[in-house]
């Protein structure tokens, strides 16, 4: 599984995700840092990446478009550093790997992880 780390998350996530066994790249390495969310989603879909973000707009975009992809994993915590939630994210990626590969929106917070299969209806 390949992950695209959104601009609103630290590039430090790339090394953490790679160490946990996933291929990862930060958006700043492949696109304009001022790109809008739709450009990021299009790139992820075209290149087979799951979007990893803290931005709530990605879930809204999936709901409004009723698109079947790309998959999105969204962190909904105040502290989004790898030190604070790295284990939570790694656990969710393992738990929901098959759903993410097929098309899903995964929402994580400190107390739970929820998966919604795409397209959202």
What does it look like?
- By secondary structure, this protein is of the alpha/beta class.
- It has one domain (2-117): Rossmann fold, CATH 3.40.50.
- Helices cover 40% and strands 22% of the residues.
- It contains five helices and six strands; from the N terminus they run E-H-E-H-E-H-E-H-H-E-E.
- It has helices at residues 12-19, 37-47, 57-65, 82-95, 97-102, and strands spanning 2-5, 23-26, 49-53, 72-75, 104-108, 113-117.
- The protein has a six-stranded mixed sheet, sandwiched between helices.
- It starts with a strand and ends with a strand.
List keywords for this structure.
single chain, alpha/beta, Rossmann fold, 5 helices, 6-stranded mixed β-sheet, 121 residues
Write the layout of secondary structure elements.
Elements: E1 2-5, H1 12-19, E2 23-26, H2 37-47, E3 49-53, H3 57-65, E4 72-75, H4 82-95, H5 97-102, E5 104-108, E6 113-117
Parallel strand pairs: 1-2, 1-3, 3-4, 4-5
Antiparallel strand pairs: 5-6
Main beta sheet: 6 strands, mixed
Oligomeric nature of the chains: single chain
Content of β-strand: 15-25%
Q: How many structural domains?
A: 1
**Euclidean distance between termini CA atoms:** 25 Å
- Tally of DSSP β-strands: 6
CATH class: Alpha Beta
Unreliable segments (pLDDT under 50, ≥5 consecutive)?
none
- Structural class by sheet pairing and helices: alpha/beta
Helix content: 25-40%
The total count of helices amounts to: 5
Global morphology = globular
Summarize this entry quickly:
The chain is an alpha/beta fold and 121 residues long. The chain has helices spanning 12-19, 37-47, 57-65, 82-95, 97-102; strands at 2-5, 23-26, 49-53, 72-75, 104-108, 113-117. The protein is built from five helices and six strands.
């Amino acid at each position: 599984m390949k992950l695209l780390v959104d601009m609103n998350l630290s590039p430090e996530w790339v090394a953490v995700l790679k160490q946990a066994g996933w291929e990862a790249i930060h958006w700043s390495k492949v696109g304009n840092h001022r790109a809008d969310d739709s450009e990021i989603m299009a790139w992820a879909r075209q290149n087979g990446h799951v979007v990893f973000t803290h931005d709530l707009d990605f879930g809204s975009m999936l709901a409004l478009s009723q698109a079947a992809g790309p998959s999105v994993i969204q962190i909904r915590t105040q502290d989004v550093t790898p030190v604070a939630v790295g284990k939570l994210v790694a656990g969710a990626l393992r738990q929901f790997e098959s759903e993410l590969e097929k098309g899903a929106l995964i929402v994580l917070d400190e107390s739970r992880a929820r998966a919604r299969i795409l397209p959202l209806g």
